[in-house]
Amino acid sequence: YDLYHNKIRTLAGYAPVNGMCTEKKSCTISEGLDFSAVFITAHEIGHNFGMKHDSENGCDESCCIMSSSIGTGRTLWSSCSARELNHFITELDKNGIGENCLRTSNIRYKRMPKILSGQMYTLDEQCVLFHGTCWKHEIRHGEHINDVCKMIWCSNGEGVIRSTHPALEYSYCGYRMWCIEGQCKPAIPEIAIPRHGGWSDWMVSGRGSCVTECVPCQINGQLRVRRSIRTCDNPYPNNGGSYCIGDDTRGIRCQENVSLLY
């Protein structure tokens, strides 16, 4: 199924409303390029279970998972979604659909270990996975670290700041605090151990690098230099651990002769 067949490039998922337990509509399609897919998939499954967009059922359009778009703080289900889910399950056998497929599965599911996703992927890593190699978490002016539970903002180090998605569950949001159900709450003390950052190797310009090529100097008598950088991702600091000490940028001389530009 081509999500972009109607040329609407912002469409990230599709699901038939009330499709669960029907022969041809018990399915969802979700775009999965990064962790925002978690919220997209939950949204589409909600449709399959009879949930409408919150703007269509009397609930706040901007509050919750069933908003028509991903946005700040939309990590929980609205009361309207809960009501629609309860109604769908109650009426499942009365709509001529037949046997309730939610009651007939004989599949034995393994109990999965609890995954602390926000501890597996730091805020910086979540930025990298969403925007690319050169991006890292940044706190916008007027905001605080606990605001990441509503939305992570990322910077490319060149003055560009963009949003991603609400932080993953158990992401660091303050001293001994984690994002849990969209809010910054006390963490598990024995697990929330600060991890200090470590430097990567120095990188110079090239494919996959955040560094630009040599640029001719504009001052007479100056040498041309190439910028070399290192990143604090070996490992990334987490749970309040200290950032790497030292400079992250240095200059490497490109050639012996000096520029003659004026």
Automatic annotation (TrEMBL):
The keyword Hydrolase applies. PROSITE patterns: ADAM_MEPRO. GO terms for cellular component: extracellular matrix. This is Peptidase M12B domain-containing protein. The active site is at E44. One of its GO terms (biological process) is proteolysis. Coiled coil: none annotated. PANTHER family: ADAMTS A DISINTEGRIN AND METALLOPROTEASE WITH THROMBOSPONDIN MOTIFS PROTEASE, PEPTIDASE M12B DOMAIN-CONTAINING PROTEIN. It comes from Acanthocheilonema viteae (Filarial nematode worm). Keywords: Disulfide bond, Glycoprotein, Hydrolase, Metal-binding, Metalloprotease, Protease, Zinc. Zn(2+) binds at H43, H47, H53. Residues 13-91 form the Peptidase M12B domain. GO terms for molecular function: metal ion binding; metalloendopeptidase activity. InterPro entries: ADAMTS_ADAMTS-like, ADAMTS_CR_2, MetalloPept_cat_dom_sf, Peptidase_M12B, TSP1_rpt_sf.
